[in-house]
Design a protein that fits this description.
The protein has 271 residues and is mostly helical. The protein folds into two domains: 202 residues, no CATH class; 31 residues, no CATH class. Helix content is 45%, strand content 9%. It is built from nine helices and nine strands. The strands form four sheets. It has a three-stranded antiparallel sheet, with no helix packed on it. A two-stranded antiparallel sheet has the order 1-2. It has a two-stranded antiparallel ribbon with strand order 3-4. Keywords: Membrane, Transmembrane, Transmembrane helix. Belongs to the caleosin family. GO terms for molecular function: calcium ion binding; monooxygenase activity.
Length: 271
Amino acid sequence: MAPPKNSLATAPLTEPLTPLQGHGLFFDRDKDGILTIPDTFWGLRAIGFTLLPSFVGAIILHGAFSFPTTTTGLPDPFLRIHVNRLHRAVHGSDSKTYSHKGDFDTDRFEDIFRDWTLPPHDSIGLIEIIYMVLGNSDIWDLFGFLTAMFEWVGIWMLLWPPTGRLTKEEVKGVFDGSTFRDLAQKNSEKPPDYFFFLPCFLRLWFWQPLISYILNQFRLYFNQIVDANTFRTPEPIEMESIERPLEDRDAGGYDMGEVRLGAEVRSGVPR
């Protein structure tokens, strides 16, 4: 499918694909250009989601994007998504990385990391994702805001990085669908998952990135405290004593003269 003539048109069934079409066609199991709920469910299972997230995710995605892509202008009772009109499902309050024709905007993509992450701007964490979605939200656009939050948190949960941060290459692969294909290939080579029915939060790997992220934040915070309170050895202070005649000493043999320590103070210096 080539890009549509404009954002209202239907994309022609010819090559090359737009990145948005490549993103959607991964889930098209029978390659008919129409995504059904079972298509999306099994696609989510193939890339690593467990049963419950796959089922809930498929229902939410089709409930949100079926009507904008319909070819009749009427709601589809089966909530099917038409890939050749997937550009009509581009919503507000997003990163604007997809244009309204489904093209990939490189500058907008770079803005995600340039505006919302710390140097060297090559990865993004969950907290930064939440701030980014909040910053990109449009006024009164609750649907777009919730959809963007669902998509980005879903991406983070899908990739579940051990360091707690998504790399720029991983995120870009999600936009064009290549990350989905890599994950499906990798998961197909794994042994059968006999605990596929367990929710992800009951699995040990679920907590590894979160624990790593928390420990990393504590490490950074501790380093900041140490840097701010680094002990510096004071420079030696010269002490100058003034000799007094023998008659100025007290009965105990102490010189009751002045000792200068920055400013003159009274002190006794043993002789």
